[in-house]
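Hallway conversation turned thread

IA: we were arguing at lunch whether anyone had actually written out Organic hydroperoxide resistance protein end to end. Turns out nobody had. So, for the record, here is the sequence (137 residues) and right after it the structure tokens. Reply here if something looks off.
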Amino acid sequence: MQKLYETSATAVGGRNGSVKSSDGVLELDVRLPKVFGGQGGSYTNPEQLFAAGYAACFDNALNYIAKAQRLAISSKVTAHVALIQGTPTAWDLAVTLDVEINGLEDSEAQKLLEQAHESCPYSRAIKGNVEVIINLK
């Protein structure tokens, strides 16, 4: 396998700190959500960052496969990421992807969803470890 791209980000202060990418393009303060006793406000958190990355990656996989099959589509992916407490000291994630695909019949769109899920690096990385539900909207 050939590495095509690599990046890095550094976190300081955990969920009440900051994150910064190695190139400085991404530089954000992160805070605990209010539900966990955080202050709220205009801050992001790791689950939002994961949801944004997964949504973009999955949408790209859809469009990449559609283009390879010469299918004209437009699509929109919303990733819902839940943090679930498994035990008092262990946490899990659950993901729901709500996907809109215009330009295909539902049966064709469903097939494309399945192919994208097999292709998307995020889907592949969490396969067998995180429950992922995909809804065709």
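OS: looked through it. The chain has a mean pLDDT of 96.
IA: good, adding that to the notes. The first strand starts at residue 9 and ends at 12.
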